[in-house]
Write a structure and sequence with these properties.
Elements lengths: L1 H4 L12 E5 L8 H10 L3 H4 L5 H9 L4 H7 L2 H17 L9 E7 L3 H12 L10 E6 L13 H30 L15 E5 L5 H11 L2 H10 L2 H12 L7 H19 L2 E6 L16 E9 L2 E4 L9 E4 L3 E2 L6 E2 L2 H18 L5 H10 L14 H16 L1
Parallel strand pairs: 2-3, 2-4, 4-5, 5-6, 6-8
Antiparallel strand pairs: 1-3, 6-7, 9-10
Helix pairs in contact: 2-6, 4-5, 6-15, 7-13, 8-9, 8-11, 8-12, 13-14, 13-15, 14-15
């Protein structure tokens, strides 16, 4: 791990290299301070994230900075600080700090996204402070000089070829990570299949993204001609149909799909637990669709109650709170499955720390078996405290 962490660059390079070394965890905000802030605000829901004056005034008396107090006045911050306090109460001295490393798979074109995603795990309101997080670069897969397709069939083939390249990058990154997982950090489990590393993918390779990127790379005149003849929804439908065709339209995509499936299976066998954001609306990450990857959807809070988010992608293995999130480096509340996935990662970190012998399959089972169902929604919903309780019970049973 240390050898990999030493490799640092800000230039575009293949997936599997570091954009930065390890993120420094931000100091967490005590749950009691957040509760006190909420008590001091007569109508905390009226404060809003954009109106920080009242929150900042009251937060100052509690030792909070303006930005921290502004964030602390959100329902998400209140929920997360209470969750972390509950986890710490449950684990006591059995797991002082989380041990497996976390690896963020993100593109070099949006480095700010990496820090925001990381803050869900280890930020001021993160669920796993102290986590070791590193960021792996994905090549942007945007080629300005790419030849413009001359027909609908040519466009479909070009998008599928881009999907293949993206999957190849993810396969290569997983291969490097498997090699790194063979030498886990100090304090981590050493069993052959015990969880040694956790991957979070909050920027997936997906059909819609590759369509958008290809359109962006084409001359405007060519884009206008294509969309006049074939509206965007038709393009998306045609690409999906070609991707799922029994006989591969683009042979290299079929090969890439098989190779990344094999890489996922090998990673799980080596003790790498993989979580991927499913996407928002119709967007569905290719990685999140694979067996062996926990595909995460998003929920939101309304009047203190967790409900399904408006943009829902089918095939959710798990869903977690992913809306109304105050993130480091942003003055606005953010949302989407990109932020729900790292919340699952944070809870998985606690489970792997509590039960060092737990395999990735064990961690996935813990998260799903401890989940709950929201009203009118059958998808398993993350229940952080129940997951930690179940991990503790299984760990004690294993050592009894």
């Amino acid at each position: 791990m240390q050898a990999l962490a030493a490799r640092r660059s800000t230039t575009r390079m293949p997936y599997g290299s570091f954009w930065s070394s390890l993120f420094a965890p931000a100091p967490t905000v005590d749950a009691r301070a957040v509760a006190a802030l909420w008590e001091s605000l007569r109508s905390p829901t009226d404060v809003g994230y954009g109106d920080a004056a009242r929150a900042a005034e009251r937060g100052k008396a509690l030792g909070m900075g303006r930005r921290t107090a502004k964030a602390a006045a959100t329902p998400y911050a209140r929920a997360m600080t209470a969750t972390l306090a509950g986890i710490r109460h449950l684990v006591g001295d059995e797991a002082a700090t989380v041990t497996p490393d976390v690896h963020l798979f993100l593109p070099d074109v949006v480095p700010a996204h990496a820090r925001r995603v990381a803050s869900v795990v280890q930020g001021p309101f993160g669920v796993a402070p102290g986590a070791r997080i590193s960021h792996w670069i994905e090549a942007s897969n945007v080629e300005r000089n790419e030849a413009a397709p001359r027909s609908l069939e040519g466009f479909v083939d070009a998008v599928l070829a881009r999907l293949a390249r993206g999957l190849d990058e993810q396969r290569a990154a997983l291969g490097e990570l498997v090699a790194a997982a063979q030498t886990p950090p100090k304090g981590a489990a050493t069993g052959s299949r015990a969880t040694k590393a956790i991957v979070n993918c909050s920027f997936g390779v997906d059909v819609d993204a590759e369509i958008d990127r290809l359109l962006w790379s084409m001359p405007r005149s060519e884009v206008d001609l294509l969309l006049d003849a074939h509206p965007l929804e038709e393009l998306r439908a045609r690409v999906r149909a070609a991707r799922d065709a029994p006989i591969p339209v683009v042979p290299e995509l079929a090969r890439s799909q098989r190779s990344v499936e094999q890489a996922v299976a090998k990673a799980r066998e080596a003790g790498v637990f993989i979580v991927a954001a499913l996407g928002n609306g119709v967007r569905a990450s290719e990685l999140a669709r694979l067996a062996g990857v926990v595909g995460v959807g998003a929920t939101k809070l309304i009047d203190g109650e967790e409900v399904r988010a408006d943009s829902v992608v089918e095939g959710r293995d798990l869903q977690a709170l992913g809306e109304g999130i105050p993130c480091e480096g942003s003055d606005e509340l953010l949302g989407g499955t990109s932020f729900a996935a790292p919340l699952v990662v944070g809870v998985a970190l606690w489970c792997a720390t509590i039960d060092p012998a737990a395999t990735p399959d064990d961690i996935a089972a813990i998260l799903v078996d401890s989940s709950r169902r929201l009203e009118g929604d059958d998808a398993p919903t993350l229940n952080a405290l129940a997951a930690v309780e179940l991990a503790l019970a299984l760990a004690r049973r294993r050592t009894a």
